[in-house]
Amino acid sequence: MSEPDPVLDAMRRHRSVRDFKQGEPVPETDTERAVEAAQCAATSSWIQAYHLLEVTDAQERSALASLAGGQRQVEEAGAFFVVSGDTRRHRLLAERHGQPYVNSAELFVLATVDASLFAQNLTLAFESMGYGTCYIGGIRNDLAAVDRLLELPGGVYPLFGLCVGVPASDPGTRPRMPARTVWSRDRYPGDEEVLAQVDAFDETAAAYYAARGAPGRDWSGGIWRKFARPLRPELRDFFHSKGASFE
Ligand SMILES: Cc1cc2nc3c(=O)[nH]c(=O)nc-3n(C[C@H](O)[C@H](O)[C@H](O)COP(=O)(O)O)c2cc1C
C-alpha cells in the first residue's frame, strides 16, 4: 500500500501554472485523450451533466481574459476551456418525450458537482501528460457577459474556465493544511480545535509567503478578509435566468 504510486505522485505535483510558452498549442489529439479519461469520473446516476467548451477564437480569448480581470494566461495558454454544468440535454429529452422536466435546487447541485468532478479529472489528465493548468473562476466576475459572448443556451451553467498549456516556468507547489485538519473520524472537531489547526497552518503559510517575498502574510488573514463582503451576489439571478431553480 505504501509503494510509490505514479497517480498519487502526479496529484502531489499539482501547482497552478499562469505562465505558458507562447505559440505552443494543445494538439486536438491530446485534448481528446484527456477528455475521454476525464469522462471516466463518477457521475451522479450516470447523468453526465457537464459540458466543455474550447474557446479557439483569439478575439474571444482576449475578451474573456479582460472579463476575468485581466488574466493574461486566458489568452496565452495553449488552450482555454469553459466548464459548464449541463442540464440542457436532460430537458430536451423530457420535451421530446412530452414529459415534464421538474426543476429544483438539487438539479443545479447535481450539475455543479458532476462538472467539478469531470474538470478535476481533466486537469489531472492534462497534468499527467506534462501540461500545466490553471482554473479561472475569474470568469464569474461577469458571467452574463461571458454567457452572451459564448452564446451558451439555457440550462448550460458556465462555472469556471481552465487554461492548459506548456509551462514556461515552474511556480512550485503551495502547501495544504495537514490531512488531519480536513479529515476527522466520526465527528467534526470542536471550534477551539478548528481554530488551533488554523493557527498551526498560518505558520506554514507565513513561511511560504516569506520565501516568496511577502513576509507578514498568512492564510487566515486572506480568508476572513475575503468573506467580509458579499461575493458576486448577482450569480443567483444569473443562474436563475439560465434556467436554474433554487427552490
Ligand atoms: C474553481 C477555481 C477557480 C480558480 N480561479 C482562479 C483564477 O481565476 N485565477 C487564478 O490565477 N487562479 C485561480 N484558481 C487557482 C487557485 O488560486 C489555486 O488552485 C490555489 O491558490 C492553490 O494553488 P495551487 O493550485 O498552485 O496549489 C482557481 C482554482 C479553482 C479550484
Give a nutshell description of this structure.
By secondary structure, the chain is an alpha+beta fold. The chain has helices at residues 6-12, 28-38, 58-67, 73-76, 88-96, 105-128, 143-150, 179-182, 191-211, 219-226, 235-241; strands at residues 50-54, 79-86, 132-136, 156-165.
Overview of the molecule:
The protein has about 250 residues and is α+β, with helices and mostly antiparallel strands. Helices cover about 45% and strands about 10% of the residues. The chain folds into two domains: about 5-175, NADH Oxidase (3-Layer(aba) Sandwich); about 175-235, no CATH class. It has helices spanning about 5-10, 30-40, 60-65, 75, 90-95, 105-130, 145-150, 180, 190-210, 220-225, 235-240, and strands spanning about 50-55, 80-85, 130-135, 155-165. It starts with 5 loop residues before the first helix and ends in a 6-residue tail after the last helix. The model has no long low-confidence stretch (mean pLDDT about 95). It binds flavin mononucleotide.
Under the CATH scheme, the architecture of the largest domain is: 3-Layer(aba) Sandwich
Shape assignment:
globular
Low-confidence stretches: none
Structural class: alpha+beta
Binned, the helix content reads 40-55%
Q: Using the coordinates above, name the CATH class of the largest domain.
A: Alpha Beta
Radius of gyration: 20 Å
Helix count from the secondary structure assignment: 11
